[in-house]
Amino acid sequence: MARIDYYFATVSPFTYIAGTRLEEIAARHGAEIAYKPLDIMALFARTGGTPPKDRHPSRQEYRLQEMRRQAAKNGMPINLKPAFWPANPAPSSYALIAAQKAGGGDLGALVAGFTRACWAEDRNIAEDEVIRDCLAAAGFDPALANAGLLEGAEAYVRNLEEAVEAGAFGAPFYIVGEERFWGQDRLAELDAYLSTHG
Fold first, then answer.
1. The pTM is what?
2. Structural domain tally of the chain?
């Protein structure tokens, strides 16, 4: 069984635009997904990237155009200037890590719920109530919002270290063995790779 190490950020617009296509691809190929939420700004700092707010205006403008085009291409609503961005991604990431350990729900739906809350619903994913709502909607116990916080914090840091070591430098980032795929617009390439190497 192939394993997909999935590095992403709950505040990433392109993680949002990916929707649940990764889960559909994994199901088609019988692949396992290891969900690894991380601090995307720290990843940029570690790998030569620049936070969006510090990029040249032409890069900032292009990013917004690409977000609009890719969201439209995938039939997803998007607010290019959400009310709560950048929100603190740590609380939602900790909840996701706790949910992955607890099981019983749909992790793909949880990632989609957090990112949709940020990019399409103008909700603050750092707030306990929003995190609980997303957990419940994805079939998890809402109490996981406050479960295993120390363990979640440790895993969150570890995910960043693993991402840097594995060669990831953005989000979403998909790794199968030594093969790396950066961005939701590379999911077709991941799908094709699993067809021959799954």
1. 0.95
2. 1
